[in-house]
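Renewal narrative, Specific Aim 1. Our central claim is that a sequence can be written position by position from structural information alone. The example that follows is taken directly from our test logs and has not been curated for this report. It begins with the structure tokens describing the chain, in the order in which they were read.
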């Protein structure tokens, strides 16, 4: 016969096996729920090792497993879409900020270019007005042409002086062949009664020397040329030759011519004083 302890042993072992199966079943359930919570949270919240109740993790009353899984999936997708939308909004905001910065830089460059162009235009206007106020620029003198005209006009004047009738003809300022003067008189036509508004600028020693000695072929030619110019521009000799004609032209004409003759004579004496012959040959 079996004792009471022996009869109770199978039941104890059965309960032990049942208890072990329950513990194994609970461990499996716990692991499944933890995995489900991890999938559901998608890394958005810290998970504990315990089986905490999280809204949306467990099925609603009357909700099937498929409906519950679909709901969980939709909620996960909604969170992902929200995160993606937030990232896109930040990206778009950055693009707009960059576009605004570029537009501001372009506007600043345009403003600077406009100011530079306006400054150039203002400078051009100032130069134009200054040129208009200054009048036409003095053209560069062609020494060869001016010298040829000078010799030709003096030849005509000497020829006129040899006639008796010309001795009484008025000699105006514009009729005198001045050195370093272009063929076309800038302030009036020859024979006119006009005189320069102010005293003429005295020619420099170098310019007058180069003009008188243009084309000289040697020391004898230099001496001959300078002697001719001394006889032409000596104030007393000039007055003796053309005094009556200057008086016939009027006091204003006479005074202007006499002043200019003295001016040329003074510079010519400086040419001689600086050793024009040696300087020209050197």
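The sequence written for that structure reads:
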């Amino acid at each position: 016969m079996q004792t009471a302890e022996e009869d109770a042993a199978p039941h104890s072992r059965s309960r032990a096996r049942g208890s072990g199966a329950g513990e194994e079943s609970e461990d499996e359930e716990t692991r499944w729920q933890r995995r489900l919570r991890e999938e559901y949270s998608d890394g958005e919240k810290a998970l504990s090792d315990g089986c905490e109740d999280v809204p949306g993790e467990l099925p609603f009353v009357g909700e099937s497993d498929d409906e519950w899984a679909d709901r969980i999936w939709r909620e996960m997708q909604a969170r992902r879409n929200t995160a993606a939308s937030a990232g896109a909004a930040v990206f778009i905001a950055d693009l707009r900020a960059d576009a605004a910065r570029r537009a501001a830089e372009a506007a600043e460059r345009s403003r600077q270019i406009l100011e530079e162009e306006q400054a150039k235009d203002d400078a051009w206007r100032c130069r134009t007005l200054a040129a208009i106020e200054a009048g036409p620029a003095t053209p560069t003198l062609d020494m060869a042409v001016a010298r040829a005209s000078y010799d030709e006009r003096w030849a005509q004047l000497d020829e006129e002086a040899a006639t008796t009738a010309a001795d009484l003809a008025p000699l105006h300022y514009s009729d005198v062949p001045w050195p370093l003067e272009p063929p076309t008189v800038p302030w009036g036509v020859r024979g006119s009664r006009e005189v320069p508004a102010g005293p003429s600028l005295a020619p420099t020693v170098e310019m007058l020397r180069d003009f008188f000695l243009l084309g000289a072929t040697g020391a004898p030619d230099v001496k001959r040329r300078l002697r001719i110019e001394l006889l032409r521009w000596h104030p007393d000799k000039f007055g003796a030759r053309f005094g009556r004609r200057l008086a016939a032209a009027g006091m204003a004409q006479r005074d202007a011519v006499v002043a200019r003759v003295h001016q040329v004579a003074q510079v010519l004496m400086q040419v001689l004083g600086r050793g024009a012959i040696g300087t020209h040959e050197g």
